[in-house]
Each structure stands twice: as structure tokens, then as C-alpha cells.
Design brief:
With 152 residues, the protein is α+β, with helices and mostly antiparallel strands. It is built from 4 helices and 8 strands. Strands 1, 2, 3, 4 and 5 form a 5-stranded mixed β-sheet that branches. A 3-stranded antiparallel β-sheet has the order 6-7-8, covered by helices on one side. About 5% of the residues have low confidence.
Length: 152
């Protein structure tokens, strides 16, 4: 089990109050399925619990970020397993998970500035975009509080 903290009042605004939040989160993750089978989603008081089986740790990280970057989600608990094994972040901070670093975007950030910070080359913003395609739909549309993965 892994626990990830997010800023609960920022992110993609998907809840209209009419639908079941767990069903909305599940539908969002499955739309860009990063490699999770039998995805289960529970939502209680801004806490999301994910379950299922993943093809890789990478797939779990993507699913966690997809759920956590939804407005109204403050914490994601992952009970997703990879091949049978189980597997509070302020703005501008990083958190290392497996082989990835999770970075929380702060006001004034751009993908090129983040690429410069982590890769030493601002032109590698496209790598950040590709590594986070499920979370970032356009390289110019990121927001403070959003979390992304930084891969080496």
C-alpha cells in the first residue's frame, strides 16, 4: 500500500454533484488507461483508494497522478499490485516513489522551466509532456498544485 497526498481544492473539475465520484474517477483513469486491469476505485471524503493489477510500477504512478490531480481529491491510497506484489507534498516540492520523482507544480512554473531544473535543458519539456500525457493534455496547460512525474 502506498499513500500519496495532493492539494484537494485544485485540479481537473470533474465532479458536478450528480454522478458518483468513484465512478467518475474510474472512468477518467480508464479513458487513458495506463495499464491497470480490474481497476477498483473507492472515494470517501476526498480520499481515493485504487485497486487492481498493473502491468508495471509506471502504470501505478500514472493512475495515482490521474486520480490525485482531480479537484476534490486530497489523498490517494494505492492497493494496486504489479505481477502479484504490492506496491504531503507542498508546491514546488518533490517526492521520490520507485524510480520516479513526483513534482508539485508551483505558480509561475512551466514545463520548460521544470525541464531545465531537473534535466539541465529547457528543451526537454517535451519529455516531461510525454511522460505525463495522461495527466497533462497540453504542454501549456499545467496548474499550481498539479503533480507530475519526473523520470530520469
Amino acid at each position: 500500500m502506498s499513500v500519496f497526498d495532493f492539494v484537494a481544492n485544485v485540479g481537473h473539475k470533474l465532479f458536478s454533484g450528480k454522478e458518483d465520484p468513484a465512478a467518475t474517477i474510474k472512468k477518467t483513469i480508464e479513458a487513458d488507461n495506463p495499464g491497470i486491469e480490474n481497476l477498483g476505485v473507492e472515494f470517501v471524503n476526498s480520499f481515493v483508494t485504487l485497486s487492481g493489477t498493473a502491468i508495471s510500477v509506471d502504470a501505478i504512478e500514472k493512475a495515482v497522478l490521474m486520480a490525485g490531480n482531480i479537484d476534490g481529491v486530497g489523498r490517494v491510497v494505492s492497493n494496486i499490485e504489479v505481477n502479484g506484489s504490492s506496491s504531503s507534498n507542498a508546491e514546488g516540492q518533490t517526492q521520490t516513489v520507485g524510480g520516479s520523482t513526483f513534482y508539485t507544480i508551483k505558480s509561475g512554473d512551466s514545463l520548460s522551466a521544470i525541464a531545465k531544473q531537473f534535466y539541465g535543458d529547457s528543451s526537454k519539456f517535451q519529455k516531461l509532456f510525454e511522460d505525463n500525457r495522461e495527466v497533462i493534455k497540453h504542454p501549456d496547460k499545467i496548474f499550481p498544485g498539479q503533480q507530475i512525474r519526473i523520470l530520469s
